[in-house]
Amino acid sequence: MLSVEEARRRILAGVNRLPAEITSIDDAQGRVLADPLLARLSQPPFVAAAMDGYAIRAMDAAQDASFRVIGQSAAGSPFAGSLGERQAVRIFTGAIVPAGADKVIPQEFASREGDDVRFPALPSSPFVRALGLDFSLGDVVLEAGHQLDAAAIGLAAAADHRQLAIVRRPRIAILATGDEIVPPGAIRADGQIHSSSLYAVRAACLAAGAEVINLGIARDERELLAQRFAAAIAIPADVMITLGGASVGDHDLVQETFARAGGELGFWRISMRPGKPLIFGTAGSLRLLGLPGNPVSSFVCCWLFVLPLIRALLGLASEPKQCLARLSADLPANDEREDYLRARLVSDPHGTITATAFSRQDSSLQSVLAGANGLIRRPPHAPAARAGEMCTVLPLST
């Protein structure tokens, strides 16, 4: 059986960033820039006041000197003239500093009577924002590969970009398989359960930035599975995820049907728990990831293999995030399979993380998974660990 690292290496081998598409800045939240973003203007595009107050010539500034107010400059409504000796313009934050002026005295430093203003005290700061203080015309304000959050979108708008070249979302087709599963809300026959992995994996893929095509549920019939494989190839999907049918039982038909559809199997077992029966294969540009049917197994495999693949297709760093934590309780020695224990991670005010493994680790326990915010990674043949020792954890956050 392959190690987790070797399995991920094979899944990511030859993966290239997807091509670019143009989208409105209104729809860019969470998307990834395909090209460097250059400023189309300088910001601010003029010398601007940093405070409400009075614009004067710095050379005229003297404590309690009298200045004649000759007009005002407001944001969007600048003063048209220029300043002479001992003249001032009432000015507001963000407004253009008039020609001749190079200092703004905040209004709390001013004493005004009619058109005359004095400054009993003088601040040292000029309270003036220089042309291009933030960025200049032609500057690279965001690098290619930047994932756009609210601040980056605001920066793109300030740099005068209404449309952006972003990486196309990976198209992920998801298919649940099995005679025993029905959609939530459907009437169950004896022995049936509601499909849950389909929705958990779909949600994880959406959060990672993918476009998800739900192929529904297929019974364990070769013809039905073949139709869904053909549909995924025709979309065309970048990745197809199957849930269930990944082992070698009489009703596990994913490997066989994928091969009949022209797919080439890469591997189908990895040395990990939960998630041993994981299928990987390719059919042209389509990558197949056949996840186990147990809901916790499918989620952990999604976190370790599907999400890194989505990030690689987006041109992002693909390695799952890991960090060190302190164990809150003893752990027994591990066997030959790499283990991922569902755990609760708590960070103290000093940044030290404490990891507490749940006492129940069965791969069917979704209530435990929902209560976990991390996975404790236990290498193969890891010796018993004592409370207080450090361990490697994977935070379950995108």
From TrEMBL:
Pathway: Cofactor biosynthesis; molybdopterin biosynthesis
CDD domains membership: MoeA
Alphabetical list of SUPFAM superfamilies matching this protein: MoeA C-terminal domain-like, MoeA N-terminal region -like, Molybdenum cofactor biosynthesis proteins
Reactions this protein catalyses: adenylyl-molybdopterin + molybdate = Mo-molybdopterin + AMP + H(+)
GO terms (BP aspect): Mo-molybdopterin cofactor biosynthetic process
GO molecular function list: metal ion binding; molybdopterin molybdotransferase activity
Pfam family, one: MoeA_C
MoaB/Mog domain boundaries: 173-312
UniProt cofactor(s): Mg(2+)
Gene Ontology, cellular component aspect: cytosol
InterPro entries: MoaB/Mog-like_dom_sf, MoaB/Mog_dom, MoeA-like, MoeA_C_domain_IV, MoeA_C_domain_IV_sf, MoeA_linker/N, MoeA_linker/N_sf
Alphabetical keyword list: Magnesium, Metal-binding, Molybdenum, Molybdenum cofactor biosynthesis, Transferase
EC number(s) stated in the UniProt entry for this protein: 2.10.1.1
Protein function: Catalyzes the insertion of molybdate into adenylated molybdopterin with the concomitant release of AMP.
Family assignment from sequence similarity: Belongs to the MoeA family.
Name recorded for this polypeptide: Molybdopterin molybdenumtransferase
Organism, scientific name: Candidatus Raskinella chloraquaticus
